[in-house]
Amino acid sequence: MADNNRRTAWRRDPALKRARIREAARALFLKRGYAATTTAQIARAAKVSEGLLFHHFASKELLLREVASAHADGFVATMTDAATGGDAPDVSRILRAIFAYVRTRRPVVALMAREGATLGAELHRGRVVAALAAQLARWRDAGHIRDLDPQIAAEILYGAVGVALERCFVDARPRHGERAWLRQTVRIVEGALGIPVR
């Protein structure tokens, strides 16, 4: 009986259908790549009609954006959670959390790196930079970091940390291990913010 109720709820609940389509798209994009995945394959994997897929998502590109959006939300939440607690910024703790988040989502990060042009690359950057700029402003106002423009600093740090993450987790043969990338990224960020070396 419970199984019947679950099936009936799925049939009636558009949010569940949308989530199922999004998850099927994510799985297929990761397995086959964006270009090689068709909307018909996504619909079949989600057990919906292709018409219903287009009712919820106007295009395959929009599905890819949804996958990137979920990743961006998780990235921002990880960064924000690691930044809370304690008065002074703990760059090492924040970057360890970010590196761990990306490590466990390496296939999604690789997909985003490959399909950056399709995504417009602005989706992820915009959310992360906004959250980072707000955090930098709080630290600056509290006197924990040097006096800087939080928006500009957030843009620069996003680029620097993004390159480190991509080289560490996306490149087929990174020159250095994760610990070396993390250690150097922490030093660069602390130096840029004027945080004394511990």
How would you portray this structure in words?
This protein has helices at 2-12, 14-32, 39-46, 50-56, 60-83, 91-104, 106-114, 116-119, 122-141, 150-169, 178-193. α9 (122-141) packs across α10 (150-169). It is 77% helix and 0% strand. The model has no long low-confidence stretch (mean pLDDT 87). It is built from 11 helices and no strands. It is an all-alpha fold and 198 residues long. The longest helix is centred in the middle third of the chain and has 24 residues, at 60-83.
Head-to-tail CA distance between termini:
60 Å
The chain-level structural class is mainly alpha
Name the poorly predicted regions: none
The CATH superfamily of the largest domain bears the name Tetracycline Repressor, domain 2
Extended strand count: 0
Overall outline: elongated
CATH class type of the largest domain: Mainly Alpha
Helix content bin: over 70%
Please give the radius of gyration in angstroms. Answer: 20 Å
CATH architecture of the largest domain: Orthogonal Bundle
The quaternary structure here is single chain
Query: What's the CATH topology label of the largest domain?
Result: Tetracycline Repressor, domain 2
The largest sheet, given as strand count, sense and whether it forms a barrel, is:
none
The total domain count is: 2
Q: What pattern of helices and strands is seen along the backbone?
A: HHHHHHHHHHH
- By DSSP (H or I, 4+ residues per run), the number of helices equals 11
The fraction of residues assigned to DSSP E strands is under 5%
Mean pLDDT: 87
